[in-house]
Specification:
150 residues; mainly alpha; Ferritin; 5 helices; 0% strand; elongated
Length: 150
């Protein structure tokens, strides 16, 4: 597979970060209302705040690049939303919610890591890479925290 150099690799990476954070915050927002456990709700609220922070960081960096943050399409958000609602309809236990969240983190990590790998090969500056890599570290940490609820 040929490695094509992106025209605007910094922008492409920040768009990927923004999409990841937006999808993550929307998933957490959907799930948070399904839990009755105060500790899990507290953890999810903390994660939601982190996703909002990553959204803001990516959006601001995109503005510095004179680019607009592109929201994920309805077609990419709908399956996630429906899956969460269907999965929690019959079982909204902590274990089920943790399983859903871990699955979402894994999907986000895979997509973002592909973007990071491409950005590295395109020579994206460290400052921009650090934002994306901090999202990866956050999602890996979130997986570990959610494992406690399985």
């Amino acid at each position: 597979m040929e490695n094509k150099k992106s025209k605007h690799p910094e922008e492409a990476l920040m768009q990927a970060v923004y999409k990841n954070a937006k999808m993550g915050s929307e998933a957490v927002t959907t799930v948070i209302g399904k839990t009755k456990d105060a500790h899990m709700r507290e953890e999810l609220t903390s994660q939601l705040e982190s996703y909002y922070s990553f959204e803001t960081a990516a959006k601001n960096k995109l503005l510095e690049m004179s680019a607009d943050a592109k929201d994920p399409s309805m077609f990419s958000k709908l399956p996630t939303d429906l899956s969460i609602k269907m999965s929690t309809m019959m079982d909204n236990s902590n274990s089920k919610i943790a399983e859903i969240m871990i699955g979402g983190y894994h999907m986000g990590l895979l997509d973002l890591q592909k973007s990071i790998n491409q950005a590295k090969s395109d020579g994206v500056p460290e400052e921009v890479m650090n934002i994306a890599e901090s999202v990866v570290a956050f999602e890996q940490s979130s997986i570990e925290k959610m494992k406690n609820y399985l």
